[in-house]
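Researcher: Quick one. two chains, 1515 residues in total.
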Amino acid sequence: MATSYFDFHLHPIFKQFITQFNPTYPPTHPIAELGKSLQFGGPILQLLDQEFLHMLESQSCLDQMDRATLSLGVAALCPMEQIFTSRDGLFGKLLNSNATRPLSRDLMNAVRHGNVSYYGLLIRELSLYKQLRDAGRIEILTRKTPIDIGVARDKTRLVLSLEGGHGLCRTMIGESGQPDKNLLLKPVGFEDAFSNDLLKQFTPDPAQSLRQLQQALWNENMDLCYLVLTHLSHINEQLLATHAYGMKMLKNQASIPVSTGISAKGFDVIRAAYTLEVDVNGTKKPAPVIIDVKHLSLKSRLDLYAFRTGSFKNIPIICSHAGVTGYTISAWKEALQTARRVKLDSGDLVIELKTGRKTAGRWGAINSEFTYNTWTVNLMDEDIEAILESNGLIGVSLDVRILGWHDTLSTGETNEFMSSGEFRHFFPERFAQLTGEPMESFLVPTRQERHPLSFCFNLLHIISVGLLRTHVDLPNLWKRICIGSDYDGLINPLINCRDISQLSELESNLLRWLPVAEKAYRDENGGQPLLERDAVGEVDITNLKAIVRAVMFSNGQQFIKNWLIQQRLDDQLITVPKI
Amino acid sequence: MAPSAPLTEKSLYLGDYAYRNYTTHLQEIDRVRNGIAENRDGLRSITDITDDQTQLNRRLAREGMQREQALERVNGVANFQDIAILRKILRFSNSVCRLVTTGSRGIMGYGTGCLVAPNVLITNNHVLPDADTATRTVAQFSYELGDQNRFLEPITFHLRPNQFFLTSTFKADPNAPFSGLDFTLVAVEPTSAGGGSLDTFGFVQLDPKLGKIIEGEYCVVIQHPKGDYKKIVLKDIRLLTLTDNFLIYESDTQPGSSGSLVLGLGTGEAVALHHSAIPRKDPAGNWLRRDGTPLRPGDGDDMVDWLGNEGIRVSRIVEAFNKLPVPVSMQSARAKIIEAQNATIIIPTRPPITMTPTLNSPRIEFAGAAVSAQRELVQPKLAQPELSAVYHFEVVLSDLPTMQDDWEDKAANLIPGLVNDAPMLPGTVVPALRRMRYIAVQTNRHPWLVAAEIENLPHVETCRPDLETYTDVGLTDPSSESRLTESAIFNDGTAKPNETEFIAKWSTKKWVVEAKKSGNDAIKGRQQRWWNWFAINCPVGDPLANLTDADRIKLLTNLPQLQMVQMDTGYSDHSKVLGGYNLDRDHDAISVDHDARDEEARFFFKFPGHGTRTASLVIGGLFASEHDGNGGLLVRNGKPISRLIPYRVAQSVILIGRGKQVVEAANVAMRGGANVLYMCMGTYPRPMLDAIAREAYERGVIWVCAAGNEVGLVIAPALYPGIIAVAAINPDDRPWDKSSKGKEVDISAPGEDVYVPFVDKDEKEIMVYGSGTSYATPHVASAALLWRARYADELKAYLPWQIVEAFRQALKSSARPFSNVPENLYGAGVLDIGKLLKTPPLAPTSPKMIHAYANIAPRRPSDLGIAEAAHFFWNLLRRKRRPDSVESLVGDFPLTERAQQAMAAFVKPNLSPAARTESGMETIDSDALLRQYFNQ
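Model:
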């Protein structure tokens, strides 16, 4: 039997989905094609920066997942934000040109001109998952009819999640007052729970939208496991929370966070997610949704932790595709190097800041220093602590930019943006000292390299923080981590694992590099061993293999097992099993 | 050659100080010197000398063209300088004067000065260290040689430090902010002893923005070296480095000339105030002669081996000037100076005009540009601004997507001098507004002509320049002795208690009588100060007192989630409002920073501006004074239940500035999560204000605006359908006679003689009765926030615009109808807050729930000529007639032919030929023109 793998966050059909768009429902992508890999762009792109190429390659299509024997994963649905249809910057111009065929021009135009809602996009992609399931290509797990996922099957099992609360918005993209009724049913008379929900139950309230979505999913024998409140842009028409600045290539200023923390609507959505119930034959059944802290700004994350009081206190928090900063918040504040105000076209003032990177460890002859990415999209030690203490799970991203590896000869990719409100919150004195005319913003994309050691350093820091800041012991800490690749989410993947089919190579690399990284990490940061030792003080290879296997599969499998059988999120059914 | 001058104690101190700065930056200077040497050898371009890319980018941006072209231009300056720059420098040279200080023994010293505002000059502190020295000093203009080396006759003006005097000592004192900058600003008598006018010498604007010069570029110094005739140093001065406070530049010339302005040759802008030369020194610290030996006692300055010169950066001077405290009596002067720096362009003289303004105003005759006779309409004299400046324009693109895309790709080629092109409202939720752009163009042409050319492009539907405009607040009849109007208060800077006058006028009127009946012990003896609470049916001191416990809990639970933003002149620390602001989220759209403190309050600790007064009706608490009274509607028993977020959107109560600043402020507020906005001032209608009002509406933000004061017309933004427009009533329950009125008004609230905070002549905090729709507006805004909090749960099921409509409907249906007002021009009646809070929102599915813009055709933009004429008349009518009014300095332009033709259509037909002959001029019906432009 082939070795199984788990991925906490990937986008199996996203690239296929964006090749076709028309106003009819259900979408009519040929099922046989949906699992195949795609290459966007022609010869022109070959001349461009490598980073673009890797982002536009298929990384986690169903065929690649089969080859990887990825038997269990969480498919993230992420309706394309309007920011991707902006022609600002080279990346925007490419995405909106013929150079990136077969990316659908119709889709880009529909999003750009607001001819569809984000919710409309969401249900179209959901429909494709439904069609794949009904065609027997995949299995979709649901708490409605839990199955024993310990029993192997020959098809990929997927759990569904929603990346970006904008997916709950039912008004036309970019509009706040125009309900989306643009769903042309074909054949005439066709209906399913999703189309009915869109056409017959409009709501402007995102919390109610979430409730209705979960009910529709339930009616279609599907389920939503977790929700990422924000994604990469500020959504004017439905602001749930401040997002963390995440991608330099997006030149549109909507990529820059401007608000502060979680909004009132955002709290409504979280409350709804935690208390969600579905109607099953007239009976209310709990079907709560976990909140994923990925993409939330630092202040938003702290808002979430503070919100989790009372009965919400024991609800797990997760981060599905994380990197770490290596810092506590106070150490990160100490590491602030430069900050300046930047005025956006909207009139908003934001802060461009640069923080010194924390050294993870050193290895090699040249360019030997490994550091973490200190952008606040990554987890601080307090985040790691909150997630571990909540019985949550951290999926470590395979995006080298997130993992922190960078070309030390390059000065780029060091500055990030933060909203003025949040900067003022964390640096009140420094904020008061900011003077001078605000600069107009400009962003410079840079090239990065990649390396599995960076991945190891992220894993090790999570373990180290867990040992220092929580009561979880070392063996159990290694059970709170899994892979959250974010494949097909426009990432720049590890060189050793360009797509999901190469997960086995990543596993080999972990076995090879984890002991090296652990020594380097401890040489730099001190602390007790992060890997179990044998009788002679060497890294215990048997244990190493076990924890790597757990990271690659069984930790995620156990989390999903628990999720499938839980009744309420706060009933602590998600527990860490002993190996 | 001027004679050698002795080295004084001051010059020795300054030389040592400058030398320390020099050596601190020696490494940097050496790098630049090497770069300059390579530049001279043709091995390096000027723009490659600096290693500060930010500074370079700023410098290039000033060229107003694409980067490659800008680089070429900057690098070409050494050999090919545009003649326009020399004209600009020559014009600046007119403003440079010789300073002559006398004492009991005759002339005590010379210096150089330069006018930086119509009657204010700048020089060094070590030239004019104090007011006493200034009174003994005169400024001589035109002290220079004319053609054939003939002497021109200098024109001498006395200095007036009693009117304005501000200085930063030449010695830095760690305990004195902004000390060590060695500058003095002092007022100058406007008329010379011989009757000459200071106006004829213009003034140099100090641009605080960076990027006027980069390392390696040439400087120009216009000066009176050692009191000699005016000279200009044009060659061999290159900028060596910029430090935080200073510029260091080469010197092959004589030192001295303290107080000269240093200009950047590339931009013609003032970059520094020269203040000291830098001596070469030996390792022991001795100053060195040119022959390398130590300086000896008795040596003059011409013996010293000078390394270079040092000047104080203009940006630092401006910052210090803005932040240093000045006495109250000089604040008006400072305001003038600030506005002079911000004025877009200065045209000193204009032909006379006679016109007949209406709009409830007395006939006014202005000495401004406009139409005089039909003959001139045919052959207009259109003067071109001399300065190349950056102007902003609001542009509405064609609705054809192809043309929009083409604009996106080619705007820089379509519009010469295009500096910036950005969406007016990035991320707007209204699709129609996505084709609005906001562009910046560097040009030396008339902005309305540039607008016309842009509008002629097939890509463009309309284009309007975004020029500074006045608010509706502040028109004053100078003959009036009344101290009750907002504008009268403002112009004085202080106020005096006027309760006696109030009681004499209103004691028998309805709401004062009602208030007097009140048995509320907390306000006993001064109930009349709370009359407005009775008028809106609000329990005094606790607006929630009449709610049920459940409703009150619901309201107070939701209130912390809601935000209210005040768009006004900023906040102050007056005790009445202290503690009621949320200063973690304030914003200044004028200075573009996060401190919305009223500019006036920055200089004088508790100066309560317009923003303070309009805030007091929302968050006004208790302050221990016999003058205390009235209070904020978001205050319960003296404690705020919500904190107000102040945004500064107007430079003063009179000058609103550019429209984009209002747009940006509202946009920032909305993007930051504001639920209610209120604005107690306004201006004439413009597409961008229309757009932001629509944006707010579609985003579910209740935006409450004042209907306007004294102009009759309902102003923008109040006139737009998405806005809640508020008129004013008085203690007699009648409309305030100066309140704007019209079908656009939704509601009325107390506005005449409302009790608000101020200070008296002794700077003691007091409260007085003042008037304006400015005061009516906060009542309604507070009610809006309370209502939203009360019904927050129900409103979750509403589309954003439905929230605004539901509020409007609840507001109107709960209003107390007027009993004796025949016209339906003051809205549905008077705010009844008690009833409003018990009025649930209209169901979203109700047939009465109608989108405010549903049955309204899009506002068609007026012709450009009419728009220009409206802009002209609006500003003209708002201009203060007092000679010391600050807004008289705001720049304006001669009218274009198109505007004159538009005006000609509004020539009053009923003027008799005799009257025409008598006046010699035709008159324009500005009232008709403005009403047409306002569509009212």
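Chain B touches chain A through 48 residues (CB under 8 Å).
Researcher: Thanks, that's what I needed.
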